[in-house]
Structures are given as structure tokens and as C-alpha cells.
Amino acid sequence: MARRIAAGAAARTSSSSELPAPAPSTRGARRDETPVRIGISSCLLGRPVRWDGGHKRDAFLTDQLAPFVEWVPVCPEVELGMGVPRETIRLTASDGELRLVAERSGTDWTARMRAWSKRRVSQLEDLELCGYVLKKDSPTCGMERVRVWNARGMAEKRGRGLFAEGLLAGCRSLPVEEEGRLGDPRLRENWIERVFAYRRLRSFLAERWHVGRLVAFHTAHKFQLLSHAPKDYAELGRLVAEAKQRGPALVRERYAQGFMAALRQFATPRRHVEVLQHMAGSFRGQLDDPDRREVAALIEDYARGLLPLIVPITLIRHHVRRLGIAYLEGQVYLEPHPKELMLRNRV
Are 61 and 137 members of one domain? Predict the structure, then answer.
């Protein structure tokens, strides 16, 4: 994955017609002026590419997230040449093998779709994607629980779309989600957090590598990683400590994979509370008693489910900036994605 990220550093074009927005906060890494480029099933942008000439425009993606990203739309069926409108297709199980078959004519698109998907995924890797949104239930784009029809004409929700299969196999660290799952605030926040983390990681790996930069990157992401996976944070720390002995190529690859794998784990309220309390401990001796009690009370209210995460974080961020605590000012955890998305207002 690290090799792909670095190799794609020269790519600066995409098939999207959307204009890139200013880059969000890049705490802990250099400012990356390249767009946050995200692949997406074309129908989710409102493009009339579905089998009946319709679309599945998603308001969150097109209205709220769009100002911060550059979309790279993909429609496997149209790009393969099926046309619009077109015959419906579905996944079938035949002799233990998954096939992509047209319902009425029986045309088998399996081999052509797999070959096209392999080429398209390679092209997408060169565009420095930071994430991908797939259309749920699609026989080409569905990420999970896609209907698979057996010889008896019965369907089971156990399949994965053929293009989605190729994308997930070829871009293992890329943050990928279905639009249906993004309706869950927890899943949405996790995916967008990973999108912006992946962009920072890519930016870090694209520059000349040395141990000091790796230490700085790891330090800046300390509390973000601790809120997701404390054990993974510790393992990554050992990797950083042994970087000179292991060699840069191996460390780059292992750190990149471990970093993104850690963020795939959900940040829990308990871990958030531990991180917030740790940060609050840095104020010891610098805040008066009423201010310390206020911070502690907001953390406790969040732990009890009375307040969203953004409330204690906002107060801690205020004190960090007011007191000039450099160690905490550089922590990505305090602003991992654009505040305008208000993701932490709902978790």
C-alpha cells in the first residue's frame, strides 16, 4: 500500500467534474494541497446511470461532504458498455462459482466484468484516492449482503459485487463504505476519519522518509490511535522505536498497514473518556479549580451519554490553545476531519 501511495504522488487529474475544496486541517503532517479524492458509484451523485435511467442521489454525499472532496465517479455497468437503459443483472451461484448474469437473456458478464474491474482498480490507484463509497445491494458495487440467486430461484444475502470485490482486494487499506451504512452516525464518523487519516498518511509517505518524521507523525496521532486501538498504538510504537534496525522500506509498509488497520476499529466512549482524561491531566497546575471541575464534569457527562463528544473536546481545545500546550496543539485527535461536517455532534 505504501508503494502505491508514493507511486501515485505525481497523479493530479481525475474523471470528476467536481471542483476541489481547500484542504482541511493537516495537524501532524505537512499541508497537502492535493484534493481529498474519493471514488464513488456514479448513481449516488445523481447521475442517471442505473438500469432504468434513474439514479440514487445521496444528499449527505452531494450536499454536506462534497465541498471537502473531489469525487471520482465510476459506474461499472456503463463503463463496461452495458448502456442505459439496460437489462437487469444479478449474481448467481453456479457449480460453486459466483456469476454475473443478465436476468432475461442469460448473458454472462462475469469474465468481462472481472477483467474490466482489474484494469479500473489499477487506474484508480494512480489517482491517489483517499476513500470510496459503493452502492449497496448492487451486483457490481455492493460491499456485503448482496443477493445471490441459486438454481432453485431462491436468493440469499451473502454475496459481494464483482467490482467491489476487485476494489477491496486491490486497495486493502483504502477506506471503503456503502452509502447505506453511512446513515449510521458511528459508521459515518469512522469512515470519514479514516479518509482524512489516509490522506495525511499518503502525504507523509510521499515525502523523503526518515525516522524523525515517522516519530513526529506517530506522536501527532497518539490520542487518535489510543481512542481506537490502544494495543495497536503500542505495537506501532515498537515499530517506530526499531525503525533504524528494520530499514525504511519495511517500516513504511508495516506502519502504513498497521495505522489504517487500527483506525478501522471503532473508537468507543470508554476509550474517548480515557483519552479526554489523559489530555485534561496536562492542565494540572495551569487551570484553577473551577475550570478543572468544569472539564471533569463535561467528560463525566459525555461518559454518561448526556452530551455528545464535541462538547468536552471543544472545551479541552479551548484550554489547549489558550495555555499554548504545544504537545496537545499538534494532536490530530482534536480535529481529525472538517468541523463543518459536525460528525462529533452525533457520537
Answer: yes
The answer on 106 and 58 residing in a single domain is yes
Residue 192 lies in a domain: no
β-bridge mates for residue 134, sequence order: 178
* Boundary-marking domain end, from 124, 151, 186: 186
Phi, psi of 233 (to 5 degrees): -60, -45
Does residue 195 fall inside a structural domain? no
pLDDT tens string 241-282: 999 898 888 899 999 999 999 999 999 999 999 999 999 999
Report d(CA 335, CA 276) in Å as an integer.
13
Hey, which residues does 177 pair with through a beta bridge? Answer: 133
The answer to whether residues 309 and 266 touch, using CB atoms and an 8 Å cutoff, is no
Cα(299)–Cα(316) distance, rounded to whole angstroms? Answer: 10
Write out the residue range of the structural domain in which residue 8 sits: 2-186
Q: Are residues 156 and 235 in the same domain?
A: no
The helix/strand/coil state of 175 is coil
Contacts 24+ apart (CB under 8 A), 182-187: 182/58, 182/60, 182/61, 182/133, 185/343, 185/346, 185/347, 186/266, 186/347
Give dist(CA 301, CA 4) in Å, integer: 44
pTM: 0.89
Sign, CA torsion 214/218/221/225: positive
**Cα(165)–Cα(99) distance, rounded to whole angstroms?**
13
Query: What is the percentage of the chain residues whose pLDDT exceeds 70?
Result: 90
Find out whether 47 and 17 touch, Cβ atoms under 8 Å: no
Summarize pLDDT for 305-339 with one digit per residue, the tens.
999 999 999 999 999 999 999 999 999 999 999 99
Same structural domain, 70 and 157: yes
Domain count, the chain: 2
